[in-house]
Amino acid sequence: MELPSLSRLIRLSQNTKLIKRSEWRNPKQAGGIICRCRRWQTTGPAVLCLNNVEYPTDAWTNVPASILDAIPRRLHLEPSHPILLTRQLIESHFPSTKYAHHNTLSPIVTVAQNFDSLGFPVDHPGRSRTDTYYVNADTVLRTHTSAHQADMFRKDASEGYTISADVYRRDAIDRNHNPVFHQMEGARMWDRWKVLGGDVAKAVREELDQMPKHHVIVEDANPTVHPQRNPLQEKHHSMEEVEVIAAHLKRTLEGVILDIFSKARAARETNDRKTKEKEKNSGLEETPNSGPLKIRWVETYFPFTSPSWELEVFWENKWLELLGCGIVQQRLPIAAGVPSQLGWAFGIGLERVAMLLFSVPDIRLFWSRDDRFLSQFSTLDNIRPFVPYSKYPACSKDVSFWLRSTSTNPSGGIGGDFHENDFMEIVRETVGGQLVEDVKLLDEYKTQSGRRSLCYRVTYRSLERTLTNQEVNVMQGRLERQLKSSLGIEIRR
Question: Strand, helix or coil at 426?
């Protein structure tokens, strides 16, 4: 079979015979043949070997080498890593007496697990190859921890659970986005067949009365449900049940977020004590974070919950969205074979929280193996802001090009019409994700005849050394050649 031109890590089965090859390296590793290749053909089936399991590839396969290399890292399990510390901090609010914690679930899941079990429409953009990494037509790298939700409900092993895991999405390139990141989700369920008298509302209320309260300002202006914006699942839930389950959910998550930001504030104040004393002497009574902490609930929509909310925190003079949550769509436990259960669920990005908690300015730093970064973190008892060890200069280069006039790609690369995520993927694979800080669309132009031109600015910056202009010119030239080969575009000079 012939594989697309985008670089990919492939492990060939032992009985596979290579007929034709080009541009391959590292020919023999781990007892098999591992190739980083542009294009080649085999007489037998090509497979991806992931977590010691071989998966056949097909026309849907689009997982590049850099993503495959990242799978074994699992930052949420690396000792003393800020992602692990963030996970542990959040987990501490979900006691093991009621919640089972799952941190080692495989990232390779079926399309049914990732999309079908959650009710994603067949035409949902998340199913596209431009958004999702496909191992093959039936298998993907999970795009969210909710890929395991139906399995958790089906097992029915605990009243609640959390899942922390690496997830994968083709995405933009900037300081806040990476195609591999980490999520935590959690759920708490009550069973009408198990609570006394089948009265779920009473059982939840009794538990809510035992939960600790706080005195932080909370904005929650909207009613729990709204017929159009945030509807009640009338066929399955009573208003009384939803009101008390929502109160339980919000009290739980408010406690998590308040703990995170209290620790973040304490760490910054300790680190900046001298600066703050100077500001006080100058008549500046408060820094942006020294006023009372404020949080608010905002109505939103998620396909897995209804009603649904986002929790925002006022931090550094702006509102930040931290997590999403809601009352579990009843079709999910019904499909999982536990129709008598109802409850809440939430999801939160660990990198987003860790960047705030430890003042990490660039998401790429989490993937660094540099001891100057890793040595700054130890335990939850010693949280302190990240101290930059160096600031290397950036070097920006623009690339302008005409898009091809048809949707057929003659190069055998990424087919179909232009999609920005394809462009971003080529930048990562051609240059290397750790050397590009940001990619932005600067200009878009369309001629009267309908021809379309785009101009992107690629900002190069290493986290570990200064890049020379000559180095960057070489990388930019390589990028332009790969864009022409894979997307069939015409470079503008």
Answer: helix
Give the whole-angstrom CA distance, residue 27 versus residue 11.
10
* Residue appearing with tokens 């990562």: 428
Whole-angstrom distance, CA of residue 165 vs CA of residue 77: 9
Residue 490 Rama label (left phi>0; alpha psi -120 to 50; beta): beta
Q: Are strands 217-219 and 294-299 parallel, antiparallel or unpaired?
A: parallel
Q: Whose CA is closest to 23, among 15, 32, 399, 10?
A: 10
What pLDDT sits at residue 381? 84
User: pLDDT: is 15 or 86 the higher one?
Assistant: 86
Closest CA to 164 of 183, 149, 151, 148: 183
Q: Return d(Cα 334, Cα 342) in angstroms, integer.
A: 10
CA of 486: how far to CAs of 125, 472, 482, in Å?
Answer: 22, 21, 6
Q: Concatenated DSSP letters for 147-173?
A: GGHHHHHHH--SSEEEEEEEEE-----
Question: CA 137, CA 236: separation in Å to the nearest integer?
Answer: 35
Report whether 254 contacts 295 (CB < 8 A). Answer: yes
Helices (H), 227-318: 239-271, 273-281
As a whole number, the mean pLDDT across the chain is 85
Bridge-based pairing state of the strands 99-102 and 180-191: unpaired
- Token digits for 44? 């037998």
